[in-house]
Every structure is written in structure tokens, then in C-alpha cells.
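Need residues for this backbone.
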């Protein structure tokens, strides 16, 4: 009841308060006609007739057509006005409006609680929002009393619904999970890590709402805002590397910035604006959403937006290509790349209005002739501060004197950069919209960047180059030292000292092994020039290979493995293939030729670098890949090149992308932060490098690793206080776990959740800081805490703890060693039903009561996992076993049976499961056909068994053939309809009734049992 009282009812009431009409589940079912349908037919029919002025027959025909549609992207297109149909008596198709975006009041808005959808696995959604009878938003409500456990459960529930009742999600815009306090939203099909809050209620303020739940639901579900989100802020982007289509919904800062800009254009005011959205927060998609709303403006009726031309400018060719691909991947109409101002002029003169053109700012160099009718052009300039170089901004203004100009940047604009502010900002405004570094970290859009200085003796002060040269090159022959001095002492000369590079490469490898390698993260090394790229490559490869040789690997494979781990990315030079009498120069030039990557090879290397488990692990660069290169798996940047201002901010942001890595055991590792390891002394002058920016714009651009050291002390203190308060001091991990289990059953469950939270935080901060020497004082406690948390979760939840799967590899390795040393592995190691040792726990002779309880806990976890997996395969066949497991656990926890009695019941249950799993062999059937038989037995129990067996075999054969001839049949609606007809024919031939119920249930099972991937 707490879920209903504390989350579901307040959410429902808030929605009703903002204009959603409540419909009871019974009334909604009457409108759906059948439980397996999801559209409110009379509501849709009435809305279609009212909005389009069509007859009843046409409206019902449209309903029948829409009811069969299952593709989410096609639904989004249809809802945005791309649906057409030939009406009765017409000779051609007519556009049909499903939602009236410009007149929100003409639509029907309904909210339904506890919406049950029939399927093989029927599910009940907590809250569903319908617009014109079409389900658009599903809301899952969970109790706020146990947030640590319930958040994950809510996501699992949504994923389960998407799998089991896909019809409810065919037209879905997005989903929401809420516990009445925190509210998160995510696109249809999105993994849990892409669900996010919507903290900013712009243009309103939080003070205008009674609580956070009302604010959050208004932001996402107020009818007018929901229509805006539907119309302009959902895209389907094709990942260029995987080819998969990913649905994306905007974040709040994108919604805010786009609407500010569009309202300004629509009002005809100012004709410019400056938008700073920090790197990694989706700036390219913000430009896509802005272009989409400017082009379609479904919710606005403004003459200024009648048919605008859009010109998107970047500051580099590769960014132009990246933006172009993003626009195309998101389905924007006719984006055309223009190679020159002449091309631009030709396109304007030839094509008129309504164009989207993409180009680089440098094409405007020297252009002074104005393009006529430029008032209908809206120019979006990426990295707009670069427009001031070489008077490019003036040339742009001269070419398009009357255009709208909106500047975008991923780094803050320098306070001294008056030209950029003048070009893109109105007086006194600064940024039209700002989403800064701290905003992105707070929201989880990016991770914070920590820095640490390494090898201080080798950092370089440019003012002391002469002194450093005499100290570091003292061993060189006099003639060589004189030659170097004659060429001119530079920072690069010092930086490329062979011994310096050798020691730094060795330090990089040791640091990488401790920080990145355990979790599969990767690193970039930034060096002073192309020669340094080659020198670092050789030194790092030698360090890696020597390490492997010390571990017993033969020299040749060790060298090959080391080479594979490193790739170099740099530009080619005409000097590379010139001969030289200097053997050192000749060697470097030969290496530059050998390791150079052409465009295709570079593309392949970047793709492999972004993939976990593939090489390379290191990219060594000097100029390329410091801007515009997004590789979330990059955890560390080793910096040995002096960078300044924008260059520094853009380079270090390569490490700020969020990244979650799926593990083979089903767990998940999240990148905690990015790291900058500074060998040249950049960060020692960070304040100086950033002083030309506004102080609040660059606050926390980089954070000293000392912050984490303080965090560790604080996290440890909170954890120890709670541990002492629960009386766990002095206990070993196993005893503490059972003590906490007892306390939880006696009413101290909240204390357990607090301890669980504090322990997780302590372990996480410990792992984040590792291998910093500071952690050594906390290592023994971290081992105890990790093992205890894993055990206590098993004892209390009667399930295998997944906590360890979200730990860093550093913690998992440490935990496994500790578990082995302390003898806890027998408690933690869960076995499968097929494991020969599975039955060991059922031997109860000479076992003490604690040992019997330990065995019961393990068997509870094992059988819950086994039955859960079996129910996922066929709930009709295995559902009763899952219910028996839960009932035995309930009786044990209520004190109705002892551990020994529970184990005996588990033993009998195990035998029954094994008998059921082997029953198909006795009938000479394969396992899947037998599952079909079980489905039919449950629906038509009175039909003769031999008849059902024959029908099950025939139906199984239908889907086996489908699997062989059309592996992707589950995604082919017409083919599925044919299969249903085949099943109906088999049932009819065997005189088996209830054909529709059987067909629906069998199809639900077959999609999982015979579908692609099986």
C-alpha cells in the first residue's frame, strides 16, 4: 500500500490537477474492447472526426490500421503529421492529423491507473497517459521507503513491460519511474543508465510547485509541454559504428535552450544569441533539436518561421562531417554540405527557401559580397569563438548581413573576448543559455575531471629552459650539446629527452595497469609533436613488453601484444619520406611513415579504441583527436604537451564522457570520473591558464585528486558510525551479516538500508582513489566492508547479491582474494541446478543450526534464480515452482518452519523441477514443443492428451521452419500473421477450441523461444 499512498496516488492526483482526465481501469477496458488492445477506440475515433472532419467509417478504419502498427519510429512520424490514408470516395491519399499540436485544447487527455494488458505474461502498468486515446507515457511508481532497492526494481519493471506487453509501447514517447520523491524519465527501450531527472522547470521556478513530484511531472507531462516534446524533441539516431537505431529524448537544458532561441526567432527579436553547453552534454543534438523545431515548428504558428533556411557552420572539416552525419542520422530533411561560399550562393539562388546547408566557417574567408534575402537565413555556428580568428566573423556578417546568428560553444567564452559576445549576444545578456561544467557533472551528463601531477622533477618551466638543458643534457658530448643549442632551445627539445620519455612511459604503464586496465577503460597520451609520438610509442611498447617477459611470456609474442595495444594518430608531412644522413632523424622519419594511419585505418583504430576488449588501449597524439573525438571508454589523458585556455579545456574534456561497461557476468561498471595525469606542468599553472574566463564559468573545470582523499575520509567516517551504531564492531563478516539479518527482521530495516548506502559509498570512493597511497590506511576495512555487504544482502534478500558486479575490477579482485582467504566462498558461491554439488546442502547430518541457516539462505537464492530464469522461458510451465519457492521462504521468515524443514521442502521442489525439465523426453518431444503442450494444457485441460501432443509437435515444427527460413521473423508483422494462421489451421484440424487464446499465448512464447538470438 505504501507505493500507492506515497507514489502512485500523488502522481495520479498531480496529473489530474494539470488537466489529465482520470479514467477508471474498468472504463478504460470498455473503451479498449479487449484486454490485449491498448488504444481507447471511442476516444480516438471521436478525436479523428473532430480534428479532421471525417466520417465514422473512415475514423474506425484508421483506428483498425493504427491498432496493428508496432514500429515505434513509424508511430512517432505518424503522430507528427506524416500519417495519410485514402478516405471513402476519394481518389488519392489525404493527410490525417492524429494530434493537433497547434491547438492543444482540441485533443483528449486521459490518465489511467492499473492498466492491465493481456498477453502470455499479462502485466499491469501503474499509470498510463493517453492523448486522443493513444498511449504515450507509462509511469512506474515505487515506494520511497526503500529507495536503494526500489529504483532498480522500477527499471526492471519497465523493461519487463516492454518485453512482455510490447503493444503498450508501440506508440510510447517515453517512460517515467518515480518513488514520489525522485522522478526519472527515459526513452522507449533505453537502458537504466540513460534515465535522467528533469530538475529545471523553466520558464517556471520550483517555488511555484507544492513539491518535487508535482514539478517533475509538470515538466514532462503538462499537456502543452508533452506535445512540444513529442513534436520536436525525440529523434531516432543511427549509430554510425554499429548501425543500430537509438531513440533519444532531449534533456532539460536542450529543451530550454532550443525554446529560448525559437521564441526569439518567432518574435523577430534581437536576431542572435550565445549558447554554452559544456562538452559531453549533447551540444550536437541541441543543434539538431533546434533545427527540427525551426523547420517543423508544429506547436507554433509564426510567420517568421514560415520556411526558414538553416546554415550550420563548424570550425573544422571533421566536425562539419560529424554534424552532417548527426543531422542525417536523426532524420532531418535534406542537409547538404557546401564546400565553398560559391556553392552556398549557388544553393541559395537555385533552391530558394527551406534548405539546411552545412559548411565550415573558413569557407567565408575573404567573402565580402552580400547574399540577397539573407533575412530568411538562420545561421547556427558551432565553436563560435573561432569565428573571430582571421576576421572570419566579419566576413560571415558581410556575406549574410541580415541573418539570425546563434553561436554554440562547448567551452566558456573568455571574458576578454568582446568580439564573440558582440557577434552573438545582445548587450548585457552574456549567454542566451548556459549549461556549465558543474551543471553537467551534477546531472550526471558528464563525469568530473580529476588531475594529478606526476614526476614533478620532469615538469618543464619554459622560463628556465636554459637551466634545465644544462642539467638534463649534462651527459651529452659537447659537440652534440652545442648543436642542440644552435638549433634553438625549445620546450620540445627538453620534453623529448630520451631518459625523460623512458621514465614517463614506464610510469604511464604502471599507472594504467592500476587505474584503467582492471575495468577495461582506455587512455590517450598527448605529446609535444610528431617526433615525440614515435619516441613515446617505442618507450611505452618496450615497457609493456618487458613487463610481460618478466611474467614468463616469450619475447616475440610479448612484443606483438605490446605493439597491438598502441596506436598513433597524427597528420602526414612531406618531410616524412625524405632521406637524411643523420641516423636518428632517418629512424624517426621511417617510423613516422610506418605508423601513419590513412583515413580508413584511422577510422578503424578509433572504432576499436571505443570498444571494450579490443585493442588499442592507448592512442598517442599530438594535435589530432584533441577536439570533437568522443570515446566514453577513455578514462585517463596523460598530458605531456603545454596546452592553454580553450585548447586545454577542449582536450581534457575527452575524458569527461559518461561510460557504463557491461560485464560478462551481467554486472556493470560505471566510469567514476576522468583523469588528467600531468607530466609537463600544465595543471600547476591552471589558474593562470583559466584566469581570462569568468570565474564561475570555469570553477571545477579540473579538480585536484586531493578532493577524493577528503571524500574517502568522510565516507569512511559515516560508514564506521553506522557500523558501530548497529553493534557490528569486532565481528567477522559472516557473523555481522547474520546479525544484521536478525536486526532487519526485528524492525531495524531502515538502519540496514543506511548502512548499505554508506558502505557502498565508502567502497566506491576507495576504488575511485586506488592506487593512490592514501588508500592503504583503509584497505583492511574496505575488504571487510565489501565481503560483509555481499553476504548481508544474501542473508536479508535471500538472493544472490549483485553488488559486487557493480564494483570496480580493483575491488572485485581484492574481494575474491579476501573471500578465499577468510573461507567465505562457500556462502557466496551459488550453484546451478545442474551442478553435481547442488544437492550437498540437503545432507543435514552433523550440521549446526547456523550451518543449516546458511544452507537455507544459499538454497533460497539458488532456487529463486533458477525459477526466475525458467519463468522467463515459459511462465505457464514453471510459474507454480516460483510461487512454491517464495512460499517456503515466507514461512521460514515468519518462523513457521525451521531451516531444516525448509531444506527438505526445497529438496522435494528441486526433484519436481528436474522431473518437469525431463518430462519432454518421456513423450519423445523436444523441449520447446513440450512447452507449447503445457500452454495448451492450461487453456484446454479437457482435450484428449494425445491430440494436444500431436498439435504441439505440429505447432513447434511451424516455428522451427520459421526460425530456419526467416531468422528475424519476430520483427515481421505480416509473417507473424501468417504463422498465426498456420497455428489456427493446426488447432482447427485437431478440433481444439479456444484457438485465439492459444494462438496469442503460443506466439508470445515463440517470440522468445524461437526468435532471433535463440
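Answer:
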Amino acid at each position: 500500500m505504501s507505493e500507492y499512498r506515497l507514489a502512485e496516488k500523488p502522481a495520479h492526483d498531480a496529473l489530474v490537477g494539470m488537466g489529465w482526465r482520470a479514467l477508471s481501469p474498468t472504463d478504460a477496458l470498455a473503451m479498449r474492447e479487449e484486454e490485449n488492445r491498448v488504444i481507447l477506440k471511442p476516444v480516438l475515433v471521436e478525436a479523428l472526426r473532430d480534428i479532421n472532419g471525417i466520417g465514422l467509417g473512415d475514423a474506425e478504419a484508421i483506428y483498425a490500421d493504427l491498432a496493428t502498427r508496432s514500429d515505434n519510429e513509424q508511430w512517432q512520424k505518424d503522430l507528427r503529421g506524416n500519417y495519410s490514408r485514402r478516405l471513402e470516395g476519394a481518389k488519392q491519399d489525404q493527410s490525417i492529423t492524429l494530434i493537433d499540436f497547434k491547438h492543444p485544447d482540441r485533443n483528449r487527455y486521459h490518465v489511467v491507473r492499473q492498466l492491465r494488458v493481456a498477453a502470455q505474461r499479462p502485466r499491469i502498468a501503474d499509470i498510463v497517459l493517453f492523448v486522443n486515446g493513444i498511449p504515450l507515457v507509462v509511469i512506474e511508481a515505487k515506494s520511497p521507503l526503500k529507495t536503494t532497492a526500489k529504483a532498480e526494481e522500477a527499471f526492471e519493471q519497465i523493461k519487463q513491460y516492454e518485453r512482455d506487453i510490447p503493444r503498450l509501447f508501440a506508440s510510447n514517447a517515453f517512460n517515467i519511474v518515480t518513488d514520489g520523491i525522485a522522478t526519472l524519465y527515459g526513452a522507449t527501450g533505453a537502458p537504466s543508465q540513460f534515465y535522467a531527472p528533469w530538475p529545471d522547470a523553466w520558464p517556471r521556478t520550483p517555488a511555484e510547485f507544492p513539491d518535487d513530484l508535482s514539478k517533475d511531472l509538470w515538466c514532462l507531462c503538462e499537456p502543452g509541454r508533452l506535445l512540444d516534446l513529442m513534436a520536436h524533441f525525440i529523434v531516432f539516431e543511427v549509430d554510425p559504428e554499429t548501425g543500430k537505431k537509438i531513440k533519444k529524448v532531449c534533456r532539460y537544458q536542450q529543451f530550454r535552450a532550443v525554446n529560448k532561441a525559437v521564441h526569439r526567432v518567432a518574435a523577430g527579436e534581437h536576431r542572435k544569441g550565445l549558447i554554452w553547453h559544456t562538452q559531453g552534454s549533447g551540444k550536437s543534438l541541441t543543434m539538431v533539436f533546434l533545427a527540427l523545431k525551426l523547420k517543423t515548428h508544429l506547436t507554433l504558428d509564426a510567420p517568421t518561421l514560415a520556411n526558414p533556411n538553416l546554415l550550420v557552420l563548424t570550425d573544422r572539416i571533421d566536425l562539419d562531417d560529424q554534424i552532417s552525419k548527426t543531422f542525417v542520422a536523426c532524420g532531418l530533411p535534406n542537409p547538404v554540405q557546401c564546400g565553398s561560399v560559391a556553392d552556398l550562393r549557388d544553393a541559395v539562388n537555385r533552391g530558394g527557401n527551406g534548405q539546411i546547408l552545412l559548411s565550415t566557417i573558413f569557407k567565408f574567408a575573404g567573402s565580402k559580397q552580400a547574399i540577397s534575402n539573407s533575412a530568411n537565413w538562420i545561421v547556427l555556428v558551432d565553436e563560435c569563438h573561432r569565428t573571430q580568428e582571421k576576421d572570419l566573423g566579419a566576413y560571415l556578417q558581410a556575406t549574410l548581413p541580415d541573418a539570425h546568428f546563434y553561436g554554440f560553444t562547448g567551452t566558456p567564452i573568455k571574458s576578454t573576448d568582446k568580439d564573440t559576445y558582440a557577434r552573438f549576444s545582445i548587450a548585457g545578456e552574456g549567454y542566451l543559455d548556459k549549461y556549465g561544467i558543474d551543471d553537467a557533472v551534477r546531472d550526471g551528463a558528464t563525469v568530473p575531471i580529476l588531475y594529478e601531477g606526476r614526476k614533478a622533477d620532469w615538469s618543464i618551466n619554459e622560463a628556465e629552459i636554459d637551466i634545465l638543458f644544462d642539467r638534463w643534457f649534462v651527459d651529452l658530448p659537447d659537440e652534440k650539446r652545442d648543436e642542440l643549442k644552435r638549433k634553438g632551445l625549445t620546450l620540445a627539445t627538453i620534453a623529448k629527452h630520451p631518459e625523460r620519455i623512458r621514465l614517463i612511459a614506464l610510469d604511464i604503464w604502471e599507472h594504467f595497469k592500476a587505474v584503467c586496465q582492471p575495468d577495461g577503460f582506455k587512455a590517450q597520451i598527448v605529446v609535444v609533436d610528431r617526433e615525440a609520438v614515435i619516441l613515446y610509442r617505442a618507450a611505452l611498447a618496450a615497457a609493456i613488453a618487458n613487463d610481460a617477459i618478466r611474467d614468463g611470456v616469450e619475447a616475440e609474442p610479448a612484443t606483438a601484444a605490446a605493439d597491438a595495444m598502441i596506436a598513433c594518430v597524427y597528420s602526414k608531412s612531406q618531410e616524412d619520406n625524405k632521406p637524411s644522413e643523420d641516423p636518428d632523424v632517418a629512424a624517426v622519419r621511417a617510423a613516422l611513415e610506418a605508423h601513419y594511419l590513412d583515413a580508413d585505418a584511422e577510422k578503424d583504430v578509433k572504432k576499436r579504441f571505443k570498444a571494450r576488449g579490443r585493442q588499442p588501449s592507448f592512442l598517442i597524439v599530438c594535435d589530432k583527436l584533441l577536439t570533437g573525438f568522443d570515446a566514453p571508454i577513455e578514462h585517463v589523458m596523460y598530458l605531456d604537451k603545454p596546452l592553454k585556455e580553450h585548447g586545454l579545456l577542449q582536450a581534457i574534456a575527452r575524458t569527461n564522457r559518461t561510460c557504463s561497461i557491461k560485464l560478462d557476468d551481467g554486472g556493470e561498471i560505471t566510469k567514476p570520473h576522468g583523469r588528467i595525469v600531468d607530466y609537463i606542468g600544465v595543471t600547476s599553472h591552471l589558474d593562470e591558464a583559466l584566469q581570462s574566463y569568468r570565474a564561475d564559468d570555469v570553477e571545477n573545470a579540473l579538480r585536484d585528486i586531493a578532493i577524493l582523499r577528503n571524500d574517502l575520509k568522510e565516507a569512511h567516517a559515516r560508514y564506521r558510525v553506522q557500523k558501530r551504531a548497529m553493534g557490528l564492531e569486532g565481528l567477522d563478516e559472516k557473523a555481522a551479516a547474520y546479525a544484521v539479518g536478525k536486526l532487519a527482521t526485528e524492525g531495524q530495516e531502515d538502519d540496514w538500508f543506511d548502512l548499505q548506502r554508506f558502505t557502498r559509498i565508502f567502497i566506491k570512493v576507495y576504488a575511485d582513489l586506488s592506487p593512490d597511497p592514501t588508500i592503504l590506511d583503509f584497505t583492511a576495512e574496505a575488504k571487510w566492508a565489501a565481503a560483509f555487504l555481499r553476504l548481508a544482502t544474501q542473508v536479508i534478500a535471500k538472493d544472490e547479491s549483485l553488488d559486487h558486479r557493480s564494483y570496480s575490477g580493483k575491488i572485485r579482485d581484492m574481494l575474491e582474494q579476501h573471500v578465499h582467504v577468510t573461507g567465505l566462498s562457500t556462502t557466496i558461491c551459488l550453484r546451478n541446478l545442474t551442478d553435481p554439488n547442488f544437492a550437498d546442502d540437503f545432507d543435514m547430518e552433523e550440521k549446526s543450526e547456523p550451518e543449516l541457516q546458511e544452507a537455507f539462505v544459499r538454497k533460497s537464492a539458488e532456487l529463486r534464480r533458477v525459477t526466475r530464469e525458467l519463468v522467463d522461458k515459459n511462465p505457464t510451465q514453471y510459474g507454480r515452482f516460483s510461487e512454491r519457492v517464495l512460499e517456503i521462504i515466507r514461512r521460514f521468515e515468519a518462523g513457521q518452519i525451521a531451516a531444516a524443514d525448509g531444506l527438505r521442502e526445497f529438496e522435494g521442489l528441486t526433484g519436481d523441477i528436474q522431473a518437469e525439465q525431463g518430462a519432454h523426453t518421456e513423450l519423445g518431444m523436444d523441449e520447446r514443443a513440450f512447452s507449447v503442450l503445457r500452454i495448451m494444457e492450461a487453456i484446454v485441460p479437457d482435450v484428449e492428451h494425445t491430440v494436444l501432443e500431436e498439435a504441439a509437435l505440429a505447432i513447434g515444427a511451424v516455428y522451427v521452419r520459421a526460425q530456419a527460413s526467416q531468422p528475424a521473423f519476430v520483427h515481421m508483422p505480416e509473417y507473424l500473421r501468417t504463422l498465426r494462421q498456420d497455428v489456427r489451421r493446426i488447432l482447427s484440424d485437431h478440433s481444439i477450441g479456444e484457438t485465439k487464446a492459444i494462438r496469442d499465448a503460443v506466439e508470445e512464447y515463440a517470440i522468445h523461444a524461437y526468435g532471433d538470438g535463440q
